[in-house]
Specification:
about 375 residues; alpha/beta; Rossmann fold; 12 strands; flat; binds guanosine-5'-triphosphate; binds magnesium ion
């Protein structure tokens, strides 16, 4: 799995600037709305300090981080669901993403036009969320019509589907995103062929001015009276796109020093991937040896065979067992052999639920 996160927001809020900094790709950045017509896709390595330490310990010839894919989507405007701006095209790109990151403009700059006339993050968030909700409402109505025809025969599955869709439509009518109407994704499995935009998990990126780069999310929520959709400060990530693009242009040795001078412990990219991991319920596990040390992204709650399938599908199919050691123990003891001697690298079976930082050796039959 490479997880795909779509970057969305109003025009001119700094999406492409941020995308460019994150991916260090050349993308078109211009100070006018609709400059991004084709979505730009970039791979971002997930920074993980543990990877380097493991590679040193294992004297690995190669180190391979895990990646997240970011998609830079052109600005969404009010009434996009009716085809305003480049409405439908954008909505189609958003549909393809696994999760969304909404960039909201907090920075003041008289030279950069704000499409709604002035800085108003609370209203901008509502505008974007409303567009997504209205697009979903149109979709829900269409699907409801089809589903109610299917229930005429008395088919139980069709009736269950209709019930879920009715609940979704009622919630959307009240202005609620699908992920709040059904917080448990399993409840949506019955209609999993329908891709509601607001069922995707959402991160909020506050593009703040350079002087506010170290602001805490709680302060922003209070100061700007941000709406209840940002219920969890962990999903709001203050980032200065401008500073990020400066960092991207620095040699890596100078980055830490520059960050420290701004009172920042971590780069925005680092904070963003951490937030994505937290909000989207992702964890990493490692494989390590002389040939390679590598990180793999999985969903929290996965059992060992499914995790093994990340490395190779044969490993999942023929899964026998896994030797597993927690990262801290592995590092403290100084590697595999010592971990085994101390009884900290243990054999686990099919039922074992993976934990973040697990170091694994999988055994499988062909
Ligand atoms: N001062 C300041 N300007 C910024 C910042 N981020 C972006 N800009 C400027 O705002 C303008 C628009 O930035 P983009 O990154 O192209 O905005 P966008 O959201 O991708 O816009 P669309 O693709 O048109 O939807 C550019 O001139 C950027 O240089 C920031 O953090 N501070
Ligand atoms: Mg753009």
């Amino acid at each position: 799995m490479s997880l795909k996160i779509g970057i969305i927001g109003l025009p001119n809020v700094g999406k492409s600037t941020l995308f460019q900094a994150l991916t260090s790709n050349e993308v078109d950045v211009a100070n006018y709305p609709f400059c991004t017509i084709d979505p730009n896709v970039g791979m971002v390595e997930v920074p993980d300090e543990r990877l380097k330490k493991l590679a040193q310990l294992s004297k690995s010839a190669k180190t391979t981080p895990t990646v997240i894919e970011f998609v830079d989507i052109a600005g969404l405007v009010k009434d996009a669901h009716r085809g305003e701006g480049l409405g439908n095209q954008f909505l189609a790109h958003i549909r393809e993403a696994d999760a969304l990151a909404m960039v909201i403009r907090f920075f003041e700059d008289g030279n950069v036009v704000h499409v709604a006339g002035g800085i108003n993050p609370a209203e901008d968030i509502q505008t974007i969320n409303l567009e997504l909700i209205l697009a979903d409402l149109a979709l829900a109505e269409k699907c409801l019509n089809a589903a109610s025809r299917e229930t005429k025969s008395g088919d139980k599955a069709a009736i269950a589907k209709l019930n879920v869709l009715e609940k979704i439509k009622q919630g959307l009518d009240r202005g609620e995103p699908v992920r709040h109407i059904f917080p448990n994704p399993e409840d949506l499995e019955i209609i999993n062929e329908i891709q509601f935009l607001t069922s995707k998990k959402m991160l909020y990126i506050a593009n703040v001015g350079e002087d506010m780069a170290a602001v805490k999310p709680e302060e922003l929520i209070k100061k700007y009276g941000l709406p209840a959709v940002i219920q969890d400060p962990d999903t709001l990530i203050p980032i200065s796109a401008k500073i990020e693009s400066e960092i991207a242009n620095l040699p890596s040795a100078e980055r830490r020093e520059y960050l420290a001078s701004l009172n920042l412990e971590r780069s925005g990219l680092d904070r963003l991937t951490r937030a994505a991991y937290g909000t989207l319920g992702l964890i990493s596990f490692f494989t390590t040896g002389e040939k390679e040390t590598r990180a793999w992204t999985i969903q929290r709650g996965w059992a060992a065979p499914r995790a093994a399938g990340r490395v190779h599908s044969d490993m999942e199919k023929g899964f026998i067992s896994a030797d597993v050691c927690a990262y801290d123990n592995f590092i403290e003891l100084g590697g595999e052999e010592a971990a085994r001697r101390a009884g900290k690298m243990q054999k686990q079976g099919r039922e074992y639920e993976m934990r973040d930082g697990d170091i694994c050796i999988f055994y499988f039959s062909n």
